[in-house]
Fold:
Amino acid sequence: MTLIEAENAIIEEFSMYEEWLDKYEYLIELGKSLKDYPEEAKTDEKLIKGCQSRVWLDHKVEEGKIIFNADSDAIITKGIISLLIGLYSGRTAQEILSSDFSVVEKIGLKENLSPTRANGLVSMIAKIREVAMAV
Amino acid sequence: MNVHEIRSMFPALSRKVYGKDLVYLDNAATSQRVHTVIDEWNRISSESNANIHRAVHRLADEATQAYEAARDAVKDFLNAAGREEIVFTSGTTAAVNLVAFCYGEAFVKEGDEVVVTEAEHHSNIVPWQMMCKRKGAVLKVLPVDDYGHLKVDMLDEILTDRTRIVAVTHISNVLGIINPVKEIIEKCHAKGVPVLVDGAQGAVHCRVDVQDLGCDFYVFSGHKLYAATGTGVLYGKRKWLDAMPPYMGGGEMVGTVTFAETTYAPLPMKFEAGTQNFASAATLKQAIEFINLLNDNKLVEYNDKIRDYLLDYFQKDERIRLFGVPRGTSQEKIPLFSFVVDGVHHEDLALILDKMGIAVRSGQMCAEPVMDRFGVTGMLRVSVAPYNTMEEAEYFVKCLNKAIDMLM
Structure:
């Protein structure tokens, strides 16, 4: 699936849930599906600043593709970063940087988060872009 | 009066969020505004918008009268000895900063000591810390016990002949326990130490009589007390306010100004430099009138019932750890409950409750030392106002349980 296809799939998935609580249930499930994140990788360096809850984002590069892993102490936040990882992990830097990240607006995530949490989301995206640019 | 009549006085309470009835339980941060406050603010803004105190024209006169009427209302509300002891500020934070700076300038020297408590809001810590740094003074801390009560007995050892001031909260915004401020003030005064009481929560929930308490300073905010935001009060005993230098220089706080020397205006104007937030400050009068209405016995009883219901719930549910627990009767506590659910992040709970129409607070609540004291990174807080109903409290408990189930 290309990145645009994956983004569209998420937008469609989200459009099926009318109630916000259902969207949260979906995010909670996504959060739980994230694979184990090693305790030793919970360093300040990997901590994303600007989030109310703590979010760590780690990455490695394999065959030109960036593999992300992340964790958070709050499950909904973990669901959000899980959603982003689902989209952007395993892709080349070029692919990631080709995205305008408007998916988060299209699924209504940004406008329905409080400003402090929206900032956290912006910080997560900025970190993913930063990693892609550095590779 | 019954609670439904009280509710109808608050326009915000009839709105919906996400298609659900709003259940507003973040009152300790900002209370909703009573319509008389909104009306007065609108009236001044649309009819009497002019600089207070300065001009002789009609609009300025009306604005001045409204502003000064609020000062009289606050004087009566606190039972201050004189209206010159009431200084308007932008809020509790500004009032503490004013005292920390000006009192510090006048009375604190290198090696002196300032005492705060472990239960304080950042607003009653950081200004003192800044002053101590500037003056080379030492900040000392009175701890709280495991139940969230101040260890008042320890004051005897903490107070020394170098203690210059004690700053203590009337009621912690996290713990909700009514502190024995009168006893603390007596202990401090016995050693000649003045006391500032942070009344941000206390002014809302207790009947404050500053002469009976004997406090040297009492500070509170309007926005937690049904008034407009950007308003606050510094009560200070005249002898201290007279002895303190001004905080900010500017218009209206002066006697005569020449380039060689300036004399200052008498109290309270000495501390009210510049054009004041007069339309908002004026609404303190309507807010206080509303509070006087609440002293109706039936309403107090009803509110106590909601507090007891929630206290009982929080103490019985084994998944919940409540911070700030009465040692004796529930009367020691205001209807404010901060807690954690082990294994569930407070932020997740707040987010889900929000989507159920319930507004609560999550996080450190500007009181990191309290979080550290109890070994948590944050808490969830529900704070009840006299316009909240028992049905809302029951709905909250139901939703909280649903949210915990979703997250566990």
In short: Chain B touches chain A through 15 residues (CB under 8 Å). Residues 58-78 of chain B form the longest helix (21 residues). Residues 87 and 234 of chain B are 5 Å apart (CA to CA). The longest strand of chain B covers residues 163-169.
